[in-house]
What does this fold into?
Amino acid sequence: MLSVVKLKIGIVATAVVLPMLAGGCEYLKKPEATRFDAVDGGFEFRAIADAAYPEDSANGESWRMRWLEQRLQQTATCPNGYEITSRKPVLLSTGALGSIYDVYYEGRCA
It folds into this structure.
């Protein structure tokens, strides 16, 4: 009887966790915590920096650049490349898990 209960708990846990993991991966593909605007000759982009994607880390910046690349491809902006002309982190809050920033980028198309 105990092994049946463990099996049921395992099945329920799997049914709950797998969709969350899949949803998490989808979130990383299309983050809602970004904003992208094509402007004359370039773009303006805002992305979040937090404990998962720190403002001052190479890994966090790598994710923000992936998100930017996705937005550039989705909108067919800067098909011949681009240059980031401005990057400005703005502190929104600091808490137990660290600081949260909005990071603003401006870029010019090649």
Summary: The chain has two helices and four strands.
